[in-house]
Every structure is written in C-alpha cells, then in structure tokens.
Write a structure and sequence with these properties.
The protein is of the alpha/beta class and 409 residues long. The chain is built from eleven helices and 21 strands. The strands form four sheets. Strands 4, 15, 16, 17, 18, 19, 20 and 21 form an eight-stranded mixed sheet that branches. The protein has an eight-stranded parallel β-barrel with strand order 5-6-7-8-9-11-13-14, surrounded by six helices.
Length: 409
C-alpha cells in the first residue's frame, strides 16, 4: 500500500526509503549523520506548478522564495539557476545572503518588522525594494529617503491556516486575524499612512500582506476574505494617486502534514487571486517557503541507543532539536520512518529522543515502528524548511550536514 507521503523523489522501493532515487540509508552512511537529504527537483516542480497556474488564469505573476524558510548554501544555487524565483528577505542579513548567492537587488523584496535605523542604512545602500508595516516605520523611512518608492504591508484582520493547527478554530493565522498582531497597517490607519506618504513625497507602489499559515485548499475560503479586503485597500491607494504596480500576498501556502490532508490546489489559489486582484491591473506575487521547499527535505539520523524505561521503548538518535527546531517551536508534525523497513510490521510504539540535554528533546512519542536496533537510520520527513535555517547552538551540538541532489536516479 502506498504511503500518504510518497511522491516522485520520496519513494518506497522494496520496503526501503529512497530520496531523489537514492537509497536513504546509503546516503546517511556516505555523508554521515545527522544529514539533511534534499530532493531539489521537488522545489522546481512546486515552483513550476505555481507559475503554470497563474499562466492559465492570465495574470502577471512573480514568485519569490522566503529565505527565512530555506537558506542552505547547498540548496540556493539550484534555485538561483531556475532563473525565475526571486527572494523575500526579512533582515539585512538575509539581503546580504541573497546577494552573496547570486540574486540582484531588483530580484529581492524586503518585508521586515520593527526596522531600526541601522537596518535602514543597509537597505538603502543595497537598493532593494522595501515594504514597511508600521506607521512609525513609514515615517522614519520618509525622513531618511524622501521622494522614494516604497511598499506598504497591510493587515486585513483575516487569515487562513492549516486545519490541524491548534488555533485553527479561531479563524485566523499567526499573522492576521481579529486579534491584533504586530504585523501590518490596519484599515483604520490607512488615512494616516497616506498622510505620512504625502508629507515625505513617498510613492507607494506595492501593497503587501501576509495572512497565511500552512493553509491548503480547505483554507481558500478564509484566504479569499483577506484578499478581498486587500483589493479594497489597494483601490484606496489608487484613488489617492498612488500607482500600485504589485500586490504581494505573502506566503503561508502549505503542504500536507497528515494522511487526510489534500494538497493545495494551485489553480484554485490562482483563481481566488485573479478574481479580486486581476481587475486592478497589477502584478500578483507571493513568497512561499513551505510550499516550495518543505517536501524536498529529509533529516537522516542514526539510532545510537535502545532502552526500555518504565515499560516504554526509547530510541535515542544522534540528532536533537537544535539541528531541526521546527517541531519544537511550531509543534509541527514530523513523520518518522525506518529507512530499511518502511512496510515492515510496526508493532512497537517508540519514544524517539534526541541528544540534547533537555527533557522535551523528543521527536515523537508512541511512534509505530518495527523492531529497532542500534545503528539503524531513521528519517524525519518534510523538514525542508524552518529546520536547517533555524538551527540553534544550544549545547554546542554541530549543525547537520547536507546532501543536495539536483537530479533523480
């Protein structure tokens, strides 16, 4: 029976896990553990899927990668070589990282929060396009760069999230909802934003929002509410003689995390946007991280200890949360499989523990696997984003290695 997470580039062959057509256990032995194994072709497939969807609806579209999600120097050259994926940066450091890896200033969009004077010094020097998300930031930018072009990040107080998130019932994302967040200029602040822009002779050319948090097709109705409000705000800027050339709907596009999840329908996503933004004559853009890269990554780790404690079987790995923090920060689901025996009898329920001296350094509890032995290689799936890029130095454990594959065998 096919596993729910299987796809081209992540397959089961004769009971063994294959990544980019390569035996996952063999990859671990060759490169050492822990190691992130990346199927880079998956990134290209996801990117082309979005471009094709917007081509079918006939609206100008610009795609950027959220660098905070994936910045591995072994991954970025592949994305750069595609030639059609720009960068969303959220810090001056990320701007520098993108430029270092081949992107030019006009291919980088900066949307940060609580931008300091020091940040502005760097941003103005690089010449990247900047979207500002607070009135005070807009005023500070105007004082520093009067007469320049800049974007506005708005908060439509509506958002969409993955249906399995603990806060999904609240009908909001981490970024936009009825409860005020730290992101974006609110509808009642638009007149003040226009007044600040007028005072400093700023030209507002982009409306930006970020209202998503891992949403799939079943989240598009909530997403459309936010997009409709953003379209109305864009018209207000146009009525105030600002020529808006781009509406950037941010990221938050998700991928399946559970067997019952259906992938995001890219055509349905594009249709929502063209319905509300198409009449405005703007370029539509988005800047996903998860949607592009999450499915591309697998973390391979070795079982270094087997123990039974109070009747509970424990398997200890040579990888703790410091090398891949997403599960521990966002409570993300991480499928765990035994690379040598995917379809074997899963009669044991293990607690999978990491090697960091913290009690909550657990990859999973009650994980159904066949009988493990020391030296086995386990694979944590769907860790291509918000893991290597968020690694920590706690306990001074070194980062995981990288094995990036730009083809499939």
């Amino acid at each position: 029976m096919r596993e729910w997470w299987e796809r081209p580039g992540l397959e089961v062959r004769d009971g063994r896990l294959y990544v980019a057509g390569r035996d996952a256990e063999a990859v671990a032995r060759e490169h050492g553990t822990p190691v992130f194994a990346y199927d880079l072709v998956r990134i290209e497939e996801q990117a082309l899927g979005l471009l094709d969807a917007f081509d079918r609806v006939g609206v100008p579209f610009r795609l950027r990668l959220a660098l905070k999600a994936q910045r591995d120097p072994d991954v970025l050259p592949f994305i750069r070589a595609l030639g059609f994926v720009g960068i969303d940066a959220c810090s001056p450091g990320e701007v520098g990282h993108a430029i270092e890896h081949g992107w030019t200033a006009d291919e980088i969009s900066y949307t940060g929060t609580n931008v300091s004077e020091r940040d502005m010094d760097v941003l103005l020097e690089t010449g990247v396009h900047v979207n500002l998300d607070l009135l005070s930031q807009l005023d500070r930018w105007g004082r520093r760069a009067p007469g320049s072009s800049v974007g506005i990040r708005v908060n439509p107080r509506a958002g969409a999230t993955w249906s399995g998130a603990p806060y999904a019932a609240e009908g909001a994302s981490l970024y936009a909802g009825a409860k005020p967040t730290k992101f974006g200029i609110l509808d009642e602040q638009i007149d003040d934003a226009l007044a600040i822009a007028n005072k400093h002779e700023l030209r507002l050319d982009t409306v930006h929002c970020h209202v998503g948090d891992g949403f799939l097709t079943d989240g598009l109705r909530a997403f459309e509410t936010a997009v409709e409000r953003v379209a109305a705000t864009t018209r207000r800027f146009g009525d105030a003689d600002h020529e808006i050339v781009e509406v950037n709907v941010g990221g938050g596009l998700g991928v399946p995390q559970r067997p019952e999840d259906e992938p995001l329908d890219a055509d349905a996503f594009a249709t929502v946007l063209v319905r509300h933004l198409g009449p405005l004559g703007v370029t539509v853009s988005c800047e996903p991280g998860d949607y592009l890269c999450k499915e591309s990554g697998v973390l391979l780790a070795e079982v270094v200890s087997i123990d039974e404690r109070g009747g509970v079987p424990f398997a200890g790995l040579d990888a703790g949360y410091v090398v891949a923090p997403e599960r521990f920060i966002y409570d993300a689901l991480v499928p765990i499989v035994l690379t040598r025996a995917i379809d074997a009898d899963s009669s044991r329920a293990y607690t999978i523990a990491g090697n960091v001296n913290e009690g909550d350094d657990l990859w999973g509890e009650g994980v159904a696997l066949s009988q493990l032995r020391e030296g086995d290689v386990l694979a944590m799936l769907n860790v291509g984003t918000y893991n290597a890029s968020m690694r920590l130095e706690h306990c001074l454990r070194p980062p995981a290695g990288t094995a990036a594959f730009g083809d499939r065998l």
